[in-house]
Amino acid sequence: MSKEYRFIGKSTPRRDATDIVTGGASFLNDIKVQDLLYGKVLRSPHPHAIIKKIDKSKAERLQGVKAVLTWEDVPDWKGGTPRYTRVLDRKVRFVGDAVALVAATNREIASEALGLIDVEYELLPAVFEMENALKPDAPSCMKNSPGTL
Q1: Does residue 42 sit in helix, strand or coil?
Q2: Which of 58, 85, 82, 53 is nearest to 70 (CA)?
Q3: What is the pLDDT of residues 61-107, one digit of tens each?
Q4: Which of 13, 18, 24, 70 is most buried, by the most CB atoms less than 10 A from its CB?
């Protein structure tokens, strides 16, 4: 019982083939968006700490900076799986955890603004090995955590 299909097993000519080979097709990188903002993230250098004080005033005064956000400025945005950890929190839980977000008119200004944010941390004990994390007295990133559950 041989069925004749309309498309299966048959070549289908590409409608955009001529545009692609002659350079007439537009791709995502060809699109130029006006008034685009660039974002950068200030990340924690510490594995476990509380942000005691954060001063973003110098970064906000930099020409071209449109916004600087910290845990104090954002709603209770959650991330992770499951979503129980705040995206920006007063507590940092790993090296590279987000501390502040910067939006600026270009990448260079956004990077420069990151360097102008002053953060004072209170370092907390960290656990680096699984055996130590399983101990009953091991520090927890969830216990007594300001800004979390």
Answers
A1: strand
A2: 53
A3: 999 999 999 999 998 888 878 888 888 999 998 999 999 999 999 99
A4: 70
In a domain, 7, yes or no: no
Contact 65, 59 (CB under 8 A): yes
The total of structural domains in the chain comes to 1
CA distance 91 to 7: 57
Cα dihedral sign for 127, 75, 147, 110?
A: positive
Phi, psi dihedral angles at 109 (to 5 degrees):
-65, -40
Residue pLDDT, tens place only, 115-134:
999 999 999 988 888 898 89
CATH of the domain at 71: 3.90.1170.50
Range of the domain at 56: 35-125
Q: Is residue 135 part of a domain?
A: no
Judge whether 59 and 109 are in contact, CB under 8 Å. no
d(CA 103, CA 37): 6
